[in-house]
TrEMBL record:
Classification via PANTHER family: GLUCAN 1,3-BETA-GLUCOSIDASE, GPI-ANCHORED CELL WALL BETA-1,3-ENDOGLUCANASE EGLC
Keywords for this protein: Cell wall, Hydrolase, Secreted, Signal
GO terms under biological process: carbohydrate metabolic process; cell wall organization
GO cellular component terms attached to this protein's record: cell surface; extracellular region; fungal-type cell wall
Localisation: Secreted, Cell wall
Organism: Cucurbitaria berberidis CBS 394.84
Name used for this protein in its record: Glycoside hydrolase family 17 protein
Region described as Disordered: 321-380
Length: 409
């Protein structure tokens, strides 16, 4: 749906519950739980039921985004989230895990097996398929390579998108919209434009919490998210943009001015979540954490109680604050307006002095392995391939510069 249409839907429903149809509200769901154990059908069912029955929720959280079609610890068995979604009438944004591989045969095999087994009870629930998740971010941005797990190139992602369309052409999924999920910094990188050209809508993971090189204190979070969304809308060529991951950590280490606390997580929901629910398709990060390697935790209800960690109601309906402008250099951009000092990636920099793995790099201090912490992106693809991506100050700072340089052309 075009944004203008989305606004019309919202306008028509102001005062009542937030619009769900055709816009969706949902959560992300990893193949494993926060101990790394494979989730069973029963686990998924419980999760999907909790999502729909959260006390005080401002709408119907009846959609789930998956990262893989393959059940964890199997080669190519369909993920047990599928029958769980059927049992709970949960809409699905499917994910094809596409990193560190030259083919997606097992992903498509698992999907086609499920289509055969469950038929339209399954396929009617599918609202989209994402070929890949943050692969471009992991493979492309300087300083992040080899620190954030394997990714994949735009060329390979495009190849996989074409393969997916071909293999689904003779199934009931032939008209399901195809996307790719990535960070806003990857989307605005013109090297990745071929991916935009080959998908039906864009999907973005955006976390002001991790944007340590900008002024990412909680009070500025809505403005940062808005600037990410504006940047992507600017390159989307009129295609719809879904938010596939956003949220604020309730515990764990800080990233720049981004501080993890239950209070801040609640504020982000109220100020940012309530401003985007019903305006775009949104998959919150997250109901339940799924990455034991990530010390930063986001779960709204990790014990799957329908009583959430904080108040989910959206009492005051508001819009996101104006976007923080992006500029050629950080003197004028994000800046560290709070302190006005040149912090790790603050004023005056082109990012190059902020070396990956240095103490100022998010991830290095928070993870003994030196590569923690983007959420949701460590996902087993069922074949034991795991990937952890990192937001790196330097890469993001450079991306901001790059984005503006691109627009100036
Ligand atoms: C929530 O969404 C589900 C799945 O689309 C639907 O079955 C259910 O009726 C919806 N509930 C409400 C209260 O709208
Ligand atoms: C854009 O993507 C290309 C190709 O992956 C990569 O080489 C380049 O570093 C990226 N630029 C930025 C600013 O991330
Ligand atoms: C990662 O490091 C290995 C070995 O140093 C190198 O061969 C490979 O190209 C690197 N990958 C990326 C994405 O930079
Ligand atoms: C990053 O962490 C993962 C698991 O958390 C580990 O397997 C990988 O080797 C680490 N990479 C680097 C470069 O430290
Ligand atoms: C701003 O600078 C202060 C002090 O140098 C630092 O503690 C803080 O993390 C910086 N904030 C950002 C967003 O870089
Ligand atoms: C689950 O978590 C909620 C919120 O954090 C808490 O209030 C509740 O007591 C927990 N329930 C159980 C059974 O642990
Ligand atoms: C960015 O740099 C370009 C070329 O140097 C310039 O034309 C443009 O006005 C600058 N934009 C901003 C916001 O400073
Ligand atoms: C940064 O941007 C400002 C304002 O656009 C400009 O005056 C300054 O020369 C720029 N600095 C660099 C290093 O490009
Ligand atoms: C980035 O800035 C550093 C320090 O100011 C400088 O030494 C380096 O040449 C610059 N790199 C680029 C690519 O502009």
């Amino acid at each position: 749906m075009r944004f203008a249409t989305a606004l019309a839907v919202v306008a028509a429903t102001i005062g009542s519950a937030i619009a769900q149809d055709p816009l969706v509200l949902g959560f992300n769901s990893g193949a494993t739980d926060d101990t790394g154990a494979a989730k069973t059908q029963k686990d998924f069912e419980k999760e999907f039921k909790t999502a729909k029955n959260l006390e005080g929720a401002p709408g119907n959280f009846s959609a789930i985004r998956l990262y893989s079609n393959i059940q964890a610890n199997t080669a190519d068995s369909p993920i047990e989230a599928f029958p769980a979604a059927i049992a709970t009438n949960t809409k699905l944004l499917l994910g094809i895990w596409a990193s560190g591989t030259d083919n997606i045969d097992n992903e498509l095999k698992a999907l086609n097996a499920a289509v055969k087994e469950y038929g339209t009870k399954f396929t009617d629930l599918i609202i989209g398929i994402s070929v890949g998740s943050e692969d471009l971010y992991r493979v492309s941005e300087p300083g992040i390579r080899n620190k954030s797990g394997v990714g994949n190139s735009a060329e390979t992602i495009v190849k996989f998108i074409k393969t997916t369309r071909e293999r689904l052409a003779s199934t009931t999924l032939k008209n399901v919209p195809i996307t790719h999920v990535d960070t806003w910094t990857a989307w605005v990188n013109t090297s990745n434009k071929a991916v935009i050209d080959n998908i039906d809508f864009l999907a973005v993971n955006a976390f002001p919490f991790y944007e340590a090189e900008r002024d990412n204190q909680i009070s500025n979070a809505g403005s940062l998210l808005n600037s990410a969304l504006s940047a992507i809308d600017g390159v989307a060529g009129g295609k719809d943009v879904w938010i596939t991951e956003t949220g604020w950590a309730y515990s764990g280490p800080s990233f720049g001015a981004g501080s993890a606390s239950v209070e801040n997580a609640a504020t982000y929901w109220k100020d940012v979540g309530c401003a985007i629910f019903g305006k775009r398709n949104v998959f919150w990060y997250t109901l339940r954490d799924a990455n034991p390697a990530n010390k930063v935790k986001f779960a709204v209800s990790d014990n799957l109680s329908t009583k959430p960690r904080f108040d989910l109601s959206c009492k005051v309906k508001k819009d996101l604050p104006a976007p923080t402008p992006l500029s050629n250099n950080s003197t004028t951009s994000s800046g560290n307006t709070t302190t006005g000092t040149g912090s790790s990636s603050g004023s005056g920099g082109n990012g190059t002095y902020n070396t990956p793995g240095s103490s100022s790099t998010p991830g290095s201090s928070s993870n003994p392995k030196g590569n923690s912490s983007r959420p949701g992106v460590e996902q087993s693809n069922g074949a034991g391939i795991t990937s952890v991506s990192v937001v790196n100050s330097m890469a993001l700072a450079l991306s901001v510069v790059f984005a503006v340089a691109t627009w100036a052309l």
